[in-house]
Amino acid sequence: MVHLPYLLLGIAPIASAQYASAAAPALAPRATVGPSAGRWESLGNLLVSPPSAVSWGANRIDIFGLDVKAALNHKYWNGRSWSNWHAISDKQLISEPVSLSWGDNRLDVFALGTSGSVIQQYWDGKAWGIEDLGGVLQNNPSVASWGPNRLDVFGLGLNSQVYHKVRNGTSWGGPGWENLGGTMRASPSAVSWGPGRINLFVRSALNGSLQHKRLNGNWGGWENLGGSLVSDPVAVSWGPNRLDVFAVGIDHTLQHKWWNGTSWGGWESLGGRWVSVPVAVSDQPERLGVYCQGHESAVWYRHWNGTAWSPYTGLNGTIVSKPSVVSRVPERFDVFALGTDHAVWHN
Ligand SMILES: *[C@@H]1O[C@H](CO)[C@@H](O)[C@H](O)[C@H]1NC(C)=O
Ligand SMILES: *[C@@H]1O[C@H](CO)[C@@H](O)[C@H](O)[C@H]1NC(C)=O
Ligand SMILES: *[C@@H]1O[C@H](CO)[C@@H](O)[C@H](O)[C@H]1NC(C)=O
Ligand SMILES: *[C@@H]1O[C@H](CO)[C@@H](O)[C@H](O)[C@H]1NC(C)=O
Ligand SMILES: *[C@@H]1O[C@H](CO)[C@@H](O)[C@H](O)[C@H]1NC(C)=O
């Protein structure tokens, strides 16, 4: 029996027990009509963290997750077939992995090591490398990139303040971390819509409001965007000067706030009954998909088509982790989550 740490399954902080339903079938995901109009396929393995998927091109998907030894595992789609799973290193990790690609044939994966420092494992086009960025964080970091060789990592220190570290070119800027202050909870969400730009969102530990900080050459102050959130926020951008932020509200509906280039809109409630932190993906300008583990432990989603939100659609099947979603071409969304067998399932 594998004991799955609460932290790793990413279902915190909402008590999922209250959603347990007698009707929820204890089955692995099964075939349905989904975003890819496909059916669930098992990609195997036995993971103790939610999967993290990333795509650097139309014919490429990389998936990461922690195996039962807490080592980072990797599997990829090359446009024709899936590779086998392999362990990237035997380094033990204690948070869910966060993956990102800043260019063709480049991968970066971040997670906390056993001492709470940030461990980066990267594919440089030829080989895997590993680096310890130091620090002591409470939770998995958030990473953004605005261009080749640029990485900005954010996380919450033990004092609940937000810390930042930059890789510009070939090395990380010094041994320390920049303190951005605040009194925050869980994990921040960082997004970049263009060179030199980062928008950072994090939930206040004082009252659950959404706090925002903007990098444009220099950091601005913390901006209070209100709201009453019970999950981490997640931010996405479909183009220059556009931001969409999603989180679960205190009423357990999906909450949405957006920046249209001149002002903030929202909060808008998108309804539902959400268990996991939402996952937001944009496949093209003016288009968004937002996914979560919802009631009956199924994947639920709504899409924004430029003028309206689609109704909620569920992908039949029981999942035990939050989903990870990538769009490698417009109109196509690939969804990954752990099934009840803790294998990775793909729809
Ligand atoms: C999926 O679930 C819906 C609603 O629960 C049900 O109507 C539908 O028949 C199911 N489809 C499959 C393929 O199981
Ligand atoms: C990043 O590195 C480039 C090239 O070395 C340099 O020109 C630039 O000033 C650096 N930017 C920052 C923010 O350090
Ligand atoms: C909530 O906390 C933030 C700081 O984290 C503060 O700016 C804001 O005024 C507070 N809101 C209320 C309603 O107390
Ligand atoms: C953003 O929204 C505000 C308020 O609805 C509106 O007045 C403004 O024209 C919008 N800006 C853009 C660029 O769409
Ligand atoms: C978006 O969806 C709404 C409601 O279904 C529909 O009326 C509208 O035509 C759609 N817009 C586009 C661009 O598909």
From TrEMBL:
Q: Which SUPFAM superfamilies does the entry link to?
A: Fucose-specific lectin (SSF89372)
Q: Which residues form the signal peptide?
A: 1-17
A single Pfam family it belongs to is DUF8189
What CDD domains does UniProt report for this protein, alphabetically? PLL_lectin
Which part of the chain is the PLL-like beta propeller domain?
A: 56-346
UniProt keyword annotation of Signal present: yes
Q: Which domain of life is it from?
A: Eukaryota
InterPro entries linked: PLL-like_beta-prop (IPR058502)
Which keywords fit this entry according to its UniProt record?
A: Signal
Can you say what this protein is called? Answer: PLL-like beta propeller domain-containing protein
Q: Which organism is it from?
A: Podospora fimiseda
